[in-house]
Amino acid sequence: MTAETPSRPPLMVGLTGSIGMGKSTVAAMFERAGVPVFDADAEVRAMQGPGGELVGRIEEAFPGSTGPEGVIREALGAQVFGDRDRLARLEAIVHPAVGRKRARFHADNAQADMVLFDIPLLFERGGADAFDAVIVVSAPPEVQRERVLARPGMTPAKFEDILKLQVPDAEKRARATHVIDTGTSLEETRAQVGRLIGELRAARG
Q: Hey, what long-range contacts does 168-173 have (CB within 8 A, 24 or more apart)?
């Protein structure tokens, strides 16, 4: 390959999974294995934090939902939770901004052999076809429920409302290119991740 010859673009891998399935844990395993990871949730938190680029627009659309430290999650949640129209208004502010961050990440890692995009609502919002492979992180329902209800401020009713907004886990698994089972030990999950990275790199050549 000469200096003028462009390298192959990185393998585009999407990572998704329903609430409480262990997606963040799996994403961290990929990152520790040397795969660049774009964390959509982390980008949103930064843009909604102190001085974040979206704080002003969110306050304008949802008065009283921000403060000196950025978006007040409880206050914003009280305004949008269970209201599809308000949620859609918030998403119209957040999603394009995340898309721009994602494009920048992709450009910055153009020389990598593989990049991972951690996108919680990949199937819900569309866009799965943009990836060479889609990994779904999954666990048995009882494990998912136990994990979610252990979170501060979570209630069974809130958990059920969240599930209603997400594509069912069984459908996600059916649409996935690969599935990582996190209903087992961390060691076994890490082994699954290692095997999958090897498979993806081998398939890419």
A: 168/18, 169/17, 169/18, 169/21, 169/136, 169/138, 169/141, 169/144, 171/123, 172/16, 172/17, 172/18, 172/123, 172/136, 172/138, 173/136, 173/138
